[in-house]
Design goal:
The protein is mostly beta strands and 169 residues long. Helix content is 11%, strand content 40%. It contains 1 helix and 9 strands, in the order H-E-E-E-E-E-E-E-E-E. The chain has one helix spanning 32-50; strands at 54-65, 68-81, 91-92, 105-114, 117-126, 135-141, 145-151, 156-158, 162-163. Strands 3, 6, 7, 8 and 9 form a 5-stranded antiparallel sheet that branches. A 4-stranded antiparallel sheet has the order 2-1-4-5, with no helix packed on it. It starts with 31 loop residues before the first helix and ends in a 6-residue tail after the last strand.
Length: 169
Amino acid sequence: MICYACQSKMEDGRAKCPICGFPVIQSVEGNTVEIQGIRQMAKDYIRQWLGGVVIGIASYSYVLENNKLKQDKIADLDLAQADQLVVGEPLWSDVDFTKVDDQGMVTIHAFMKKDGIRYAYELQAKLPETAGSCHVGVMLMEGLKARLVLGNPESHTFSQPFSLVVYHG
């Protein structure tokens, strides 16, 4: 069985999804009006659940000390309110990030905050083939997941997906 809200697989006989908490609603097979109503309820549930969720990254700054770069500060940079995102459409920050390297992979320290709790993710992404600096954005995916986007609207790469829910049991 698949959850109508977060698209997670779950075993039969459950009263609600163990991932997002959406109730299991039995429908009559072939009743498209009923199924459309359940799908709309699931979309509304997801939108409500995403309310208050903030997605961001840790931003690091460095200083030159004795001819070596030394980490100076770490700050959380909020990228998006999750309920303002549209599935499949990146939302870009307007902060420029300097690319130290032009090729290879980069590790990004991302987070999701909800109800005062911060959940951290260490994500890998290929550096985009852009000149100079790049932007970071976030893109909502089906199934209550998101990805970070690096580059710009014309040339970009994606991090692996990360979850916007915590286990509900």
